[in-house]
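Thread: Modeling a multi-component assembly for a lab meeting

Hi all, long-time lurker, first post. My supervisor asked me to bring a structural picture of a complex we are working on to next week's group meeting, and I have zero experience with this. I have the sequence lines for every component (434 residues in total). Could someone generate the structure of the whole assembly? Inputs are pasted exactly as I received them:
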Amino acid sequence: MQRAIALIDCNNFYVSCERLFQPRLEGKPVVVLSNNDGCVVSRSQEVKDLGVKMGAPWFQLKDLARRHGIIALSSNYTLYADLSNRVMRLLSQWSPDQEIYSIDESFLDLTGIAESFSIGPSSPDSLTRYAQHMRRTIRQCVGIPVCVGIAPSKTLAKLANHVAKKQQRYDSVCDFNAMSAMELDALLAQIEVGEVWGVGRRSTSRLQQMGINTVLELKQAQPARIRAEFGVVLERTVAELNGVACLELDDVTPPRQQIICSRSFGVPVSLLPDLEQAVIAYTTRAAEKLRHQHSLAGGIQVYIRTNPHKESDPQYQQARLLPLFEPTNDTRLLCHAALGGLRQIYRSGYAYQKAGVMLTEIIPATARPRTLFDDVAAQQKSASLMATLDRINRRMGSGTMQLLGEGVSKNWSMRRGNMSQRYTTEWDELAVAR
DNA sequence: TCTGGGGTCCTAGGACCC
DNA sequence: TCTGGGGTCCTAGGACCC
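Re: Modeling a multi-component assembly
Sure thing. I ran the full set together rather than chain by chain. Output:
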């Protein structure tokens, strides 16, 4: 039986989330900005039509924005995560095999599904009708528009989704399996090679130098040649383009092997005490994520850097990896290590733009190695203190209890000029009909 | 004035070992 | 004058993704 892998992708996800609660944004050019209102991370169709690129710095667009009345919103991840969960939960009903690939994308294995869905003999378009049913239901129950691509491999499913989005005549659902080989190749010949999942900017220009410009040309390239020039990853992509599924659906997300927490500051920071507050805040977040996945970290890296875009300023960047005496998820021990590292790398006289921490050598909490010096009582005390801390912050709101060192005024914290309410997760901010 | 944040995987090269 | 071969582990950096 033909493999049928679907990729469901929410349209302009963050913008769609905002529009759901602010209908006045419908039909208007809207962007959602990254932290610090730095870059464009989501664009409405109207904004895409104006030629605004993903990741464009907002300050460079101010002029265009004024001319066309572009509305810019700060990102509201609490809202997006909640709506994402609702979409993903709905999707999980339509296949036993789901991989949640990102906040706005999910793979579903639909192999053999159409037969059980359609009454009577299955036709080439019965999977298309199944996908249209999913689309309508998501639109109705959550309010988010999605597109669906279906194909025998994940890489092709991504492309099918791209086609569903770009070409009106497919009505947001594109099933490569329902096409003839000739039809499909004719379609692939129209798509630029850079659209392929796994082909980034660097590979695109090198492929073009080799005379490979379209998806079809990459599909028909010699695998051995691709392997020699680019390595095993792109060779696998070529196989996937030929309908050979090399990438399985990962339906269980493995625990993270590294946990990063870093932020740019709202204003440049020069003083060590401010950096210390930021590092404590970031380490606290990272430790929460670590405990959430029931893990311990064996090391923590701390880094600081100046603004590389301000070339006239003196530049400095440094990182320090601190091994921990034993693997831990105790915020206090992690902060202590991180602060030690920060004080080693800090140099006065620079305008720092960003700091971050990264937890490494992560192991499951159940795999804690035994040592001669184990202080079991202290470990238990730490575990129950951290559990209490997490419980209070979960119930009363993040940051209700924190280390004093994180500071209260936080004059380094980021700018978020125009953030919408947390309409679905905070009692004070619920959307109510008026 | 103003340029995000958080991940994964692969490869090359060095250190080290027998 | 001439100085092996093969393996592992670790790290840094590159490329890519959303």
